[in-house]
Amino acid sequence: MCQGKPSKLRDTAVLFVTLMLFWLMLSGKLDTDVLIVGAVASLIIALLYRDGLSFFTEFRFTPQAIVAGFRYYGYFLRELFKSNLKMAAIVLSPSLPITPGIVKVRTRLKSRMGRLMLANSITLTPGTLTVEMAGEWLYIHCVTLGATDIEAATAEIVSGFESYLEVMYG
User: Fold this and answer.
1) φ and ψ at 141, to 5 degrees?
2) Which pTM value belongs to this model?
3) What pLDDT does residue 155 have?
């Protein structure tokens, strides 16, 4: 029973430090008032989300997971670039060739943070938006709907991100 408390305290501290560092990067100042506002806001958020919101929550600190993390960000940036080009071509096309729709996909990821990272990666990629997460299912809105059956859509949208996130989070 006492084993959960140090982990919760550690998760809260990691979240506070992560939020504070993000605040400092955004503000770009080390003035006293900026530090106080950042510390108060970071503390409130960290206390409200004691279960953790940090990238490192549920992260497996193994050499394979660290390598997968770097490869994941490389993959994400490549997909981001390709999606931006595809969306630019659609927007610049006089016929505006879109076929919007929502597709249901399945994820193999078991950890909450892994699923959250997957949903955010899909949403941050132009042309796709994660509408809902329900257990192992994700509902994704696509500007140009490709495959509509679950297996093909999962392979097309999810599997690239998932292969790295599975090593990182399980």
Assistant:
1) -85, 130
2) 0.70
3) 81
The helix/strand count (H/E) of the chain reads as 6, 3
Residue where the block lists tokens 């080390």: 30
DSSP state at residue 29: -
Provide the pLDDT for residue 53.
Answer: 60
Question: Residue 89: how many CB atoms within 10 A of its CB?
Answer: 10
Of 145, 96, 136, 81, the closest CA to residue 114 belongs to 136
Amino acid at site 141 = H
The pair phi, psi for residue 166, each rounded to 5°, is: -65, -40
The structure tokens 């501290």 sit at 13
- In contact, 133 and 109? CB cutoff 8 Å: no
Q: What is the dihedral of CA 104, 109, 111, 117, to 10 degrees?
A: -70
User: Is-contact 76 165, C-beta < 8 A?
Assistant: no
Contact 121/65 with Cβ under 8 angstroms?
A: no
> What is d(CA 154, CA 150) in angstroms, rounded to the nearest whole number?
6
What tokens were used for 79?
């997909």
Average pLDDT, 10 consecutive residues per value, the chain (170 residues): 60 86 90 94 88 69 92 94 93 87 89 90 91 92 79 82 91
Position 72 scores a pLDDT of 95
Q: What is the pLDDT of residue 3?
A: 46
